[in-house]
Amino acid sequence: MKQLYWLLIGLCPLVLLIGCDEAETISLNKREMQPPKGQGATKEICTVIRNYAPFSVTGRVQLKSRERKNFRLARNESKKVCLKGMLYGGDTISFVLTNYLTLPLFSCYSRWDRSIDVYARKQGDSWVYRATCRK
Fold this sequence. Notes:
The chain is of the alpha+beta class.
């Protein structure tokens, strides 16, 4: 019985992680795993990120060719992020919100020529993140 208990304790985080990645409900933080299909252009891009969360957020913008730019935004702050390289399919970029240890909390693919607005709301003991990712 004790072995079964420890087995279940060990699998619990794995089950919760898989549930978060596959579920598409409003109560869970979105984690997009597959980039849009197709070939993206190679060029220099700039996108604006705006933080409407009630606290500072950190994250990164990344291109298919692995160029990335990290950002930190205070509450109600905006920042223009520029990169040069190959985009994902549909001329999209990867947008990731991270915690202070740089572990992903939210991710999506979005057009680079539109602003990305970040929101957060309290749900129970945790926060639910949302961003305006447009494809």
